[in-house]
Structure formats: C-alpha cells, structure tokens
Amino acid sequence: MPLKLAIVGRPNVGKSRLFNRLAGRTAAIVHDTPGVTRDRQAVDAEYEGIALTLIDTAGFEDAATGSIAHRMTQQTITAIAEAEALLFLIDARAGITAGDQIIAQTLRKSGKPVILAANKCEGRVEIPAEIYGLGLGDPIRISAEHNLGMEDLVAALEDLMPKAEAAPEEEDDGEEEEYSEEIEAEEEEDEFSEDDEPLEDITVNYLDRPLRLALVGRPNVGKSSLFNHLLGEERSLVGPEAGLTRDSITAPWKAGDRDVLLHDTAGLRKKARVAGETLEEMSVASTLEAIRFADCVIVMIDANAPFEKQDLTIADLIAREGRAIVFAVNKWDLLENKAGGISRMREKLDRLLPQVAGAPLIATSARTGEGIDRLADAVTEADKAWNTRISTSTLNRFLEGALQRHATPAISGRRVRIRYMTQRKARPPSFTLFGSQLDALPEAYLRYLSNGLRENFNLKGTPLRFSVRNSKNPYAPKGRKS
Questions:
Q1: What is the CATH number of domain 389-470?
Q2: Cβ pair 239, 251 in contact under 8 A
Q3: Is the Cβ–Cβ distance between 434 and 465 less than 8 Å?
Q4: Whole-structure pTM value
Q5: Which of 175-179, 323-327, 455-459 has the lowest mean pLDDT?
Q6: Can you give the three-state secondary structure of 48-72, one letter per residue?
C-alpha cells in the first residue's frame, strides 16, 4: 500500500517543486510568486522504489475568516487529517518564522509522524539554529530544485513505510512464480483491414482504465463548485473571485458504473488577456494538458451569458483534439426566463458548432445539484459514442441510403463518386471514404454524412473525422489519381 504523504509549509518554500520531484513529472505549477498553489492535489507516484500518494498543499497562513488565504489554510488542514505522514518543509534561507512555529504546533498536535526538511540548501547555506526549537527533530538538508539531499529524504520515508508481513512458508515445488507489470493499453491507431472487422454491426470497446474527464470553461462559470459537488467534499477552493483555480486538480469519481478520473481546471481566458502574465499562462497550459489527457470534456457554460465567443473557441479546441464533449449550462437556478431556454440554446449550439452538433446539453446548478444525475448519464453516453466502432457492411448500407436521398455534387461536369466507406478507428470515430474526385467533396456534404451517422448510430457527443482515398484512374499518367 502506498504511503499517503502530505507536503506542508509556508507559501513559497518549494512545496510544489518537491511535489513534482517526488511525482517524477510536472504535476503542479511552480512559480516564484507566493501562494501559487491554492487547492490540495493528490497523485500516486513511486520514488526510488517507494510507493507514495503525494498531497501538495497550499500555504499555511493565519488569515481573516472567509479570505482566500483562510480557505487555502482550511484545505491544508484537511490534507493533514487525510495523510498518514507529514513532510514539513521550511526555507533554510529565510530562517524560522512565526508561521513555521504555528505549523509545527499544528503538526505536533496531529500525532502523525513528521519529516522535517530544510529546502533551498544548495551552496553554503547554514541551517538556522532556531529550527531545533520546533520540536520535530533534526532537519534533512535538501534542494528540491537541484535534486540535492534526496537520498536522506528517501531513507526517512523508508522508515515510515509499513513493514510487510512475512508470508507463510510453503513447500518448494522447484518452480519460480513470474510477475509482470500490467501495461495500460492505449487507443489503436492502425488503418482498417479486413481482420479488424467487428463481429457485430456496432461494438463499443472501452479502454481498460478509468474514464478521464475534464471540467473546462471560462473563469468563474462554476467548474470548482461542480467538481466539489460531484465528489461530495470541498476538494477545490471556491468563491466569488474569478480565477481561483490554477493547477489542474485530479480526483476519482463514479459516473454510474464507470470509474472516472475527474479533473478540475483553471478558467480559459482569451489569449490576448493572458499574454505576458506568466503565472496565468502556466495555468492555461495546465488546462490544455488536461484536455489532451482527457477522453471526455465537460464544457461549462454560464446560463446568464451562454455561448460567448470564448465558449465557442474552447469547444472548437476540444473538437479538434478529438475528445468527447458534453455541455453543462451552469447557474441554471439563477436564470429568470427558463421557458424554452434549453431549446434556444440547442439551436444556437448546433448552428454555431456544427462540428459537435447534437452534443449533450444539460441544464445544471452546482449550487443546488439540479441536473447532476442527467450530467453523469450524458457523460456515459458521450463516452460510449467516442468508443463506438461500426462494421463496414453496416456503414455501407447507411451510405447507400444517404446517397439515394442526397446525391454527391458534380464538379466540372463530373460527379464525385463515393464507392464505399470504412471506419478505420474509434476514439474519436474516424471514417475513410473510397471513390473518385473525393478531394473536391464539399464540406457541406461531409457534414450531411456526419449528421446522418450521428442520428443512425447515436454518435452524439463526439467529433467525427473523415479522410478520403481516391481510386486510381487507369487513363491518367503514372503517379496521378483521379
């Protein structure tokens, strides 16, 4: 079992840098500005053979009740309560402050084992003598930035690991039991071949891992409030202030019977407003990484200002990344004229975002819980559509009917001809059209086929992709295609 370890300390002592060092990746934003981390974030990691559940925390400050700093401190107190062991980080260059003494007192009262580490010890930095007055033993000298002193930290962590019970002795049968690590299967990218033909007309093949679901939207649309409501706890910092979330925070959740890894993200503002703001640029980069990491994305829309230009830009980005998409119209409880509201928004969505036409659109309130059950169902359906694969024979029966209802156009006196189509992969569903002059096939006709596929095979909530393959013209010069 991994050791659940919370990293605690004042703002700007290097907690997130050490968190990233132990996690083996950039899981938290690191910047010189104090108070960058605001929410507690947990990741599973293995460092030097030690299995850990790491919890990065916000700074611990004595602040006025209700202030952002006070709410951040409450998040840290919750992390201390959840952890099995505590890593108390101080800044060796700054010395011991009143804040460090308050934290030390809190950690001693917790009754949990504490590792005291003095960070930023690169160079000729002397450990302040006052550190021994904290009552937490000898400090470990480290530099998270320069990877110094980590072997001493590993030794301290090993001492905290639960001792494995001795296995009962068994008779030696002369055979060794072999172990192998289970490697997560990634989505297939191979071109379609006859061997890939599904056994059924329509199959849904989920990846053998939890669904990765990201909450994305403009600042202050209620992403963190929804995140907390879904988890049933105050996991992310919330409040009337825009831009509270900076890191992408991850937590396990359930959507029906489906295991989900849920990501809360920072709000995405217009690019021009972010330019030059290094910290906000890092937050946006973290959100974009969460989108690329996701299988499905919930785009949160403010019911009082739906489908503004930034909403459309965000949705288009997600579609181009090929992720399943669900729209949550939040703050529905605050909308005065609700009659026919969803129908009007549906018409606007399909008109402005034809690339995700028919995507689920759910009225929600993160404050009251309205629509949350429908949102979970919509995520499940969008994920199902994203993982769907359709047999070639079924696709071509659909294509035959589509061509009869609406023939392909003629280009320069010659009609574009579609002979047949296949689905080359899922996640998202991607199709190849075979025929002649297909490079001249208008976007409007591809949209016609997309809408038909969505309706006939319930592919709503996922972008669809098309490629074309032209047949060779036997009368054309060698190397040319018709």
A1: 3.30.300.20
A2: no
A3: no
A4: 0.69
A5: 175-179
A6: CCEEEEEEECCCCCCCCCCCHHHHH
